[in-house]
Design brief:
- The chain folds into two domains: 4-30 and 296-404, Alpha-Beta Complex (Aspartate Aminotransferase, domain 1); 39-294, Aspartate Aminotransferase, domain 2 (3-Layer(aba) Sandwich), CATH 3.40.640.10.
- The strands form five sheets. The protein has a seven-stranded mixed beta sheet with strand order 4-10-9-8-7-5-6, with helices on both faces.
- The protein starts with a helix and ends with a helix.
- The protein contains 14 helices and 17 strands.
- It has helices at 4-9, 36-49, 59-79, 93-108, 127-136, 153-159, 182-191, 211-214, 239-244, 279-295, 297-317, 343-352, 365-371, 387-404; strands spanning 17-18, 21-22, 24-25, 87-90, 114-118, 139-143, 164-170, 195-199, 218-222, 233-237, 255-258, 263-265, 321-323, 333-338, 355-356, 358-360, 376-380.
- The protein is an alpha/beta fold and 405 residues long.
- Helices cover 41% and strands 17% of the residues.
- The model has no long low-confidence stretch (mean pLDDT 94).
């Protein structure tokens, strides 16, 4: 991996000051910043190739289509998908999960069936399954976790049965940083005939993923969590599953022929890509994937793990900090509370020192309920963060704690 100084120079936004202090951006689990190559890819599309994809025969449309489909090919290589028909562009991980719940769920889940999710899920991997259960009469069950934020796999074994139709689990928790034992979960789920969906929104920029080696059925992510644009993401699904699933939305590009009597749907992946897509976002997504590949996911993970260990040691040395999420296997996320300081107040005070963290329930309200807190402060790390920035974070926390004493 190239020197950290050079990596930081790839990200124009990091060069600014906030309230007269150098920006320390530690809200990467919410969204990552964008390198110049991603910004350039988006701008170049609008500057040079702005046209709709798949439909035009003129030069702009052909160039736009080529760049857009190159992004799909980049994702195929990045996650080791079987082929490009298995990569569906969506608005993000949230839409991808909703697509699976609506399309696959409507034809495969019935009354009396069971869906298992974990106690650490983001709301986007809870609500769509609640809706599906309400529509079908299926039952939603929750895999519990322990006080460290690790799944209780013995309880998972007990919950899993021949009635289980799908297991939906976050690969890496956005609220806790826990990395779940997904290979074991997939193998056990498949042994009872259940499908598995992994929410990889937090994981894919931090963990090397091979969907074929995992044998996962569905894998979802969002580009903006991995240095790409907002408003675009990916659903990976096994081709046989996608072939059997009905379209999620109707409109342009997802059809082959339309009459007033009937419609014939397009081939994969376009069957699930109705309407004009986020073309610039897709092209930017491809640029982000190539950027991550140029650095190496393993190198990124090693750098972030050093930062996490450094920050964890500082937090443990502070008697007034409670860590939320201390599982043995975790990455890139440090969630905590400070005695006597509400996380929202802490976030506001840190902002005045140029330190951007997240404060709230992180769209994981059941996690907050489990740990008995209204919210947590969350510092989350990316490839461009430094140990010096961690020092600035804890100096600002110390000042905030002293202020409230």
């Amino acid at each position: 991996m190239k020197p950290l100084h050079d990596i930081r120079n790839d990200f124009p936004i990091l060069q600014q000051q906030v309230y007269g202090k150098p920006l320390v951006y530690l809200d990467n689990a919410a969204t990552t910043q964008k390198p110049q190559v991603v910004i350039d890819a988006v701008c170049d599309y609008y500057r040079n190739d702005n046209a709709n994809v798949h439909r035009g025969v003129h030069a702009l449309s052909e160039r736009a289509t080529a760049h857009y489909e190159q992004a799909r090919d980049a994702l195929v290589a990045f996650i080791h998908a079987g082929n490009r028909r298995e990569i569906i562009f969506v608005r993000g991980a949230t839409e991808a999960i909703n697509l699976v719940a609506q399309s696959w769920g409507s034809t495969n889940v019935q009354a009396g069936d069971e869906i298992l999710i974990s106690a650490m899920e983001h709301h986007s991997n809870i609500v769509p399954w609640q809706w599906l259960c309400e529509r079908t009469g299926a039952v939603l069950k929750v895999i519990p976790m322990d006080d460290s934020g690790a799944l209780l796999m013995d309880a998972f074994d007990t919950l899993l049965s021949e009635r289980t139709r799908l297991v939906g689990v976050v690969h890496q928790s956005n609220a806790l940083g826990t990395i779940n034992p997904v290979a074991e979960i997939i193998a056990k789920a498949h042994a009872v005939g259940a499908k598995v969906l992994l929410d990889g929104a937090q994981a894919l920029a931090h963990v090397a993923v091979d969907v074929q080696a995992l044998d996962v059925d569905f894998y979802v992510t969002s580009a903006h969590k991995m240095y790409g644009p907002t408003g675009v993401g990916m659903l990976y699904a096994k081709e046989a599953l996608l072939d059997a699933m009905p379209p999620y939305q109707g409109g342009g590009d997802m059809i082959r022929t339309v009459t007033f009597e009937r419609s014939e749907y397009n081939d994969l992946p376009y069957k699930f890509e109705a309407g004009t897509p986020n073309i610039a976002g897709g092209i930017g997504f491809g640029a982000a994937v190539r950027y991550v590949q140029s650095l190496g996911v393993e190198n990124i993970a090693a750098h972030e793990q050093q930062l996490l260990e450094y920050a964890t040691a500082q937090a443990q040395a502070c008697g007034y900090i409670r860590l939320i999420g201390t599982a043995e296997h975790k990455a890139s996320v440090l969630s905590f509370t400070v005695n006597g300081v509400h996380p929202h107040d802490l976030g506001t005070i840190l902002d005045r020192d140029g330190v951007a963290i997240r404060a709230g329930h992180h769209c994981a309200m059941p996690v907050m309920q489990f740990f008995g807190v209204p919210a947590t402060a969350r510092a989350s790390f990316a490839v461009y963060n430094t140990q010096q920035e961690v020092d600035v974070l804890f100096a600002a926390i110390e000042q905030a704690h002293a202020m409230f004493q």
